[in-house]
Specification:
There is one protein chain. The protein is of the alpha/beta class. The protein is built from 13 helices and 37 strands. Helix 4 runs parallel beside helix 5. It starts with a helix and ends with a strand.
C-alpha cells in the first residue's frame, strides 16, 4: 500500500472516529413537558425557531391557524402571519390527512426544519396548537424541540362540572374557564343551572332558603334568579366561544329533586310529602311546566342550547315508596325522550339502582354521570347499555370549605392511582368502550360561606391540570408526581388568562413605588395568594368608603363604608379589620394573604388574622351580617350547633387603581411569598 493511500485511510478512520464520537455525544431531545402528557414522542436533535408564518394546506384548518396566531400574539407579543403556498424553514404547516388511528382528536406533529401538524379534523389540529404553545412558553426564545409527536387521547370525554345554581358564577369567568379547559385539552363543560341551599341554614323555611335558576326565561318571567343569571344571548355566545375552543357545553337543568327555584316560583309544583325541593311527580302541572321550559331552550333552527347534549338531572329523589320510584323512572324516561325529540342526546345523573323498578327507562344513546355506586351500579348500568362518565364523588367532588368531600382534590392520589376506568370501588379495563371518559365537579353547597370565584378557581386549576393528564394520557404517564407538580406551575392558565393573579417568582418584589399617588393606575390587575402588600401611611381623616386600591374583583378600603375601618370587600362580602387609620399617626402596614385567610401586620407585629370563622347563629339578634347592603341572599342562619358554615375571609389583592385618599402613602411594595 502506498504512503499516500495510507494517509488517506488514516484520515478516513480519524474522521469516522470523530463522527462516531459526535453521534454519541449528540443530545437527542427528551419528551417535552406539556399537559396533558404526550402519548408518543420520538426525539431528535436540536431546536427549531419559528419563522412567524403559519401555512395552511387545507381550508378546513384556516380557523385553527387564525386561533393559533391570535393566541401566540396574546402570549408572546409577536404576530404570526397566516398564509398558503410553499413552506419555508421555521414555518408552522397545518394539514389535513386521513388516518383512522388518530380518531377525531388525535394529531401528528413533526418538528424539524418546519413544524408540520397533521390531523383528521380541525379539532385534532387545534389540540396540536395547544401543545405547540405550551412548548413555546417554556423556552425563552419560544423555540421548539425537534422530534416527532403522535398524540391521541385515551378517553373521548374529558370534563368538568360547575355548580352555578347555589353560587352565581359570572359569565366573564365562565368564558375564561372555557379557555383554560381548552389549553389543557379538556373538552366538556357541564353547567349546573339550578339548585338550592340547605333548609337548616335558612330558618328551616323553604321559602327563605336560597334557590336559583340561572338562565333567562321568557316563558316564565321572573323565574331567573335576581342575584345573578345569564341572558339567552350571553349563554349562546358562551357556547359559540366554546365551540371555537373545541369545548362542548352541556347545560343541565336538574329535576325532579333540587327544584326549589321552580317551586318557590310556583309552589303548586312542590311535593307535600318530600319537601319543596322535590317535584310532585303525580302532578300533571309539573310535566307541563318542564316541557315548556325545556322547549324554550331547545326548539327552533337556532336553539339556546346549541350543543349535541342536554343534561336532565335526575339525582337524589326519594325512593321511600315503590310507587314513587316507578313514577320517578317514568319521569326520567319522559325527559330522555323529550330532549331527544329536539335532536339532542340526553345526559343524566345515575340514580337507577337507587330507583330500582320495572318501569322502562331508555338507555340506548343515553349518557350517564356515574357519581355514586349506591345510586347507580356502574356495571349494571353498562349491562343496561348506558354510556358512562366516571365522576365518583369520593374522588373528584370539590365542595369548597364545607368540611366534607374535598376542599382541594387529592391530586397526587389521582395522578398516581386514578383513571376514568375507576368508578368508586369498581375498576374497569382501560378503554372499556362503555366509559366515555371522566369529569370532576365543584359543588357550592354552603351558600354564603365567603368563598369567591377566585377561591373556586384556586381549587379548580390544579385539579384541571391533573385530570387533563388522567383523561388524555390515562395510566401511561412517565413523570413522577413531584416532577409533574413542579413543572405544571411553569405553564400559563391559558392565553390571556391569569385568574390566579400570578405575577412573579417566590420572593420577588413585583411592584415597588416610593409614593402611591391617589388615582394612579398600576401595571397589574391583582396579585393572587401568597403575597405581602406593605406601605407606610401618614394618616389623615378619611371619609367613609375611601379606597386604597381596587380591581374588577375586589376593593381594599382605608375607611370602609360602614365603620370607617381598614377593610376589604369582594363579591359583596365586607371583611373589616379592627384597625382605623388615624389623622397625624404614622404606621407601617402589611397585608398578607393566602388561600386560608388574610393577615394585618402593624409596625411589624401581627394585629389580626382573618381566617375561617365558624358561624353558629342561634337567635335572630345574633345573625351574622358579613355582606354589604343590597345582597341578602348569602347571610346564613344556623340554628343547629352541629351544623356550621365555615365563613372564609380570603383576598386576592386588588392592584389596578388607587383610590382618592387624603393620607400620604410611601414605600409601597408588593412581594410574592
Amino acid at each position: 500500500m502506498s504512503s499516500n493511500r495510507k494517509r488517506i485511510l488514516r484520515t478516513l478512520v480519524a474522521a469516522l472516529a470523530v463522527a462516531c464520537a459526535l453521534s454519541v455525544c449528540a443530545k437527542v431531545n427528551e419528551k417535552p413537558f406539556v399537559v396533558p402528557e404526550l402519548t408518543s414522542w420520538s426525539g431528535a436533535e436540536g431546536m427549531t425557531s419559528l419563522s412567524g408564518r403559519v401555512v395552511v394546506k387545507n381550508n378546513a384548518m384556516k380557523e385553527v391557524a387564525k386561533a393559533l396566531a391570535a393566541d401566540y400574539e396574546q402570549m408572546f407579543g409577536k404576530a404570526l402571519t397566516v398564509t398558503g403556498g410553499k413552506a419555508r424553514r421555521g414555518d408552522i404547516v397545518i394539514g389535513k390527512i386521513k388516518d383512522a388511528s388518530l380518531g377525531d382528536e388525535g394529531y401528528r406533529m413533526n418538528i424539524g426544519s418546519t413544524i408540520a401538524i397533521d390531523a383528521v379534523t380541525a379539532k385534532g389540529a387545534y389540540w396540536a396548537t395547544r401543545t405547540l404553545l405550551q412548548m413555546a412558553e417554556q423556552n425563552a426564545q419560544h423555540q421548539l424541540p425537534c422530534g416527532a409527536i403522535v398524540d391521541v387521547p385515551q378517553y373521548a370525554l374529558r370534563g368538568f362540572m360547575m355548580d352555578c345554581g347555589r353560587k352565581f358564577i359570572p359569565m366573564n369567568y365562565l368564558r375564561n374557564l372555557v379557555k383554560v379547559m381548552a389549553y389543557y385539552k379538556m373538552n366538556t363543560l357541564q353547567i349546573h343551572l339550578n339548585d338550592n341551599g340547605f333548609r337548616q341554614f335558612f330558618d328551616g323555611d323553604w321559602m327563605k332558603t336560597q334557590a336559583a335558576f340561572r338562565l333567562e326565561s321568557e316563558s316564565f318571567p321572573g323565574l331567573a334568579a335576581r342575584d345573578g343569571h345569564y341572558t339567552k344571548q350571553e349563554f349562546i355566545d358562551l357556547q359559540i366561544l366554546a365551540e371555537q375552543c373545541c369545548v362542548e357545553i352541556i347545560p343541565e337543568i336538574d329535576t325532579p329533586a333540587h327544584v326549589l327555584a321552580f317551586t318557590q316560583y310556583r309552589p303548586s309544583l312542590g311535593s307535600k310529602e318530600y319537601g319543596m325541593d322535590h317535584f310532585d311527580l303525580f302532578n300533571d302541572e309539573v310535566y307541563q311546566f318542564m316541557d315548556t321550559l325545556f322547549r324554550e331552550y331547545l326548539e327552533g333552527d337556532k336553539p339556546v342550547f346549541r350543543g349535541k347534549k342536554v343534561h336532565i338531572g335526575t339525582d337524589e329523589y326519594s325512593n321511600a315508596k315503590q310507587e314513587v320510584v316507578e313514577k320517578f323512572r317514568f319521569y326520567t324516561d319522559h325527559y330522555i325522550r323529550y330532549v331527544e325529540s329536539f335532536g339532542k342526546q340526553a345526559v343524566l345523573w345515575g340514580s337507577l339502582t337507587h330507583a330500582n323498578g320495572t318501569t322502562e327507562v331508555k338507555s340506548d344513546n343515553v349518557m350517564m354521570d356515574c357519581w355514586y355506586n349506591g345510586y347507580a351500579d356502574p356495571r349494571k348500568m353498562k349491562e343496561l347499555g348506558y354510556q358512562l362518565v366516571s365522576i365518583p364523588d369520593g374522588l373528584v367532588y370539590i365542595v369548597p370549605a364545607a368540611g366534607y368531600y374535598y376542599d382541594y382534590l387529592n391530586c397526587k392520589y389521582l395522578y398516581n392511582q386514578w383513571t376514568p376506568a375507576v368508578i368508586g370501588g369498581e375498576h374497569f379495563e382501560e378503554n372499556d368502550p362503555s366509559i366515555e371518559g371522566g369529569m370532576f365537579a365543584v359543588w357550592n353547597d354552603h351558600v354564603g360561606n365567603g368563598i369567591t370565584v377566585k377561591d373556586i378557581h384556586h381549587r379548580v386549576f390544579p385539579a384541571m391540570q391533573t385530570l387533563a393528564v388522567k383523561c388524555w394520557t390515562g395510566k401511561n404517564t412517565s413523570l413522577a408526581w413531584d416532577d409533574f407538580d413542579r413543572l405544571r406551575l411553569t405553564l400559563s392558565e391559558a392565553p390571556g388568562v391569569n385568574e390566579l393573579g400570578r405575577l412573579g417568582a417566590k420572593g420577588e418584589t413585583v411592584i415597588a413605588k416610593d409614593v402611591l399617588t391617589p388615582g394612579e393606575k398600576l401595571d397589574a390587575e391583582e396579585i393572587g395568594y401568597n403575597y405581602a402588600v406593605s406601605f407606610v401611611i401618614e394618616g389623615e381623616k378619611e371619609d367613609a368608603g375611601t379606597e386604597l386600591l381596587r380591581s374588577d374583583h375586589a376593593v381594599v378600603y382605608l375607611a370602609d363604608p360602614k365603620s370607617g375601618k381598614l377593610a376589604f370587600e369582594r363579591e359583596g362580602y365586607l371583611n373589616t379589620f379592627e384597625y382605623k387609620i388615624e389623622k397625624g399617626k404614622k404606621a407601617s402596614i402589611t397585608i398578607m394573604g393566602d388561600n386560608r385567610g388574610t393577615q394585618l401586620w402593624i409596625d411589624g407585629k401581627l394585629k389580626e388574622n382573618l381566617g375561617a370563622k365558624p358561624l353558629y347563629v342561634m337567635r335572630e339578634q345574633d345573625r351574622a351580617h358579613y355582606q354589604v347592603e343590597g345582597n341578602k341572599t348569602a347571610e346564613p342562619i344556623v340554628y343547629d350547633p352541629k351544623s356550621k358554615i365555615n365563613y372564609q375571609r380570603t383576598l386576592v389583592f386588588p392592584l389596578r387603581q388607587a383610590g382618592d385618599f387624603k393620607s400620604r402613602i410611601t414605600d409601597f411594595k408588593v412581594v410574592v411569598q
